[in-house]
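Protocol step 4 of 6.
Sequence for ABC transporter substrate-binding protein (Lederbergia graminis) entered exactly as in the expression construct, tag removed. Do not edit the line below.
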Amino acid sequence: MKKKISILIVAVMCLLLILTACKKDEEAGNEENSNYDEFVGIDEDENGVPDWQEREIELIYANRFYGENDEANPMVLNIEKFMDEYPNITVVRDRQFTGDNDDFSELEMLTARSIEGSLPDIFYSPLAAEAYDREFTLDLTPYIESDPDAEWIPDNARSLMQSYDGEEIYGVPWMSVGQFPAVNLTLLKENNIAIPSYDWTFEDYENLRNEVAKLTPNNPIFPGSIDFSQLGPHYFDSIPNGWKGYNSETGKFDFANSTNFGAYFERFAREAKQGLHFYDLSEEERVKKVGNLGWAWGDGLEAVGNIWLYALSGDVNEIKGKRGIEIDVYPMPIAPEGGSTKIHAYYDTLSLSSSLADDPVKAEAAFQLLKWLTYSEEGLKAKWALIDEYTGLPEDAPLRAEDRLLDFIQGWPITNNPDILQEHPLVKGFPEDSELAIYNFDAFKNEAFQQQLSDPIPYPRHLPAVANVYSNLNTWELMHKIRDEGVRYSDIATEWDEMLNEQLEEYLRQYNNQ
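Step 5 output, structure tokens:
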């Protein structure tokens, strides 16, 4: 009996300890969430409905993308879906920002509006670092950190959303547009060369090109290439970020430590000497070999090419549709030892006005619109559903999905949530009897490729000095010096690092003195 009582006492004590621990965890969680109570879920009348869903709110939206005509602008049409979902919110497009302005002009327009005290509530952030420095942007940290859906935002997009000083989240990308490989299946089949699988490696890629290179001297065809010039230091040597040699951990350019990238460029320069690159031929050699053709990839003369996601519509229509060349898009080959398999991309970002800090209810409504346009499941599905609405319309209709598919898709979303990615139009594909069936590529169903597209290496627009130096940097010059002057990569990499890092430091000195 005593033994049974002892066991019972121990069990009760254990249960009490567990309940106490759970209560502490719950209290800690509540305490952590309470840090954002003044920003998120405000419900002053305590009726269980957040105030941003009840109060009549008008939001001013400023973005030039996809055209001035709202009725033919897929992003504006998706905003209308948001207003249908939340009828208490009215979104008005700011007409000053609908024209085709460049990023620098748009930054000055925002500056003028800031001085006037009339910044748009939600706007395209043209030069992210400068927009943050000029205090245009609302800190989105409370919204992102308290949103479970934001946990699906991939690491590289999340790092880009962070201001360069780490103080705030200045905006959210509504899309990334990456560059990925493509393969000319027609050329391979006609020359009895094996078609690679989607899980190909860098060695497979090189072997494929070597097979084509054997035929090049006597045929008007070329191996072609994946453009490693921009991402090479990351792909071959795992330099953090590594876009055009910039090391995001050290804050310096780091070509000297990109030795595998250097070896690749030296091989590539030797190929140029052998006449294996279409664009390295003189005009006379080119005409003699291929006639008047001038776009090697589009003319079907290269085995491997590159496609930017934003240009997918035009490239596929022209190459596959008009020219009848069978191509397939591919994931990045698995990087060689010492490297990291990623693609590179540009992100376009939306920010909220810093003036919204004075009205937290309106700020939350603006964030919900921002989320709808960027990474929310509801918003993405609403956007993609527009494709069905605008498919099969007369050819003279102001907006047709068949003509502007990528304006509806708007790049790749910044989420690696598999449930959402399965709904992506390029993943789902199109009916075989549709004009859009030309965009059916099995590669988009490949999960590894989906993750590459969701988490590419971002062009660092949020780092002012790096973005400035990039404007003066052409990594192909490295290969050209090796090709034309016979120098080794190791002879010039350190020189390039010194030059670029001096430019970084000089720019930062000027930037910090402004």
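Step 6, annotate. Residues 2-34 form the longest helix (33 residues).
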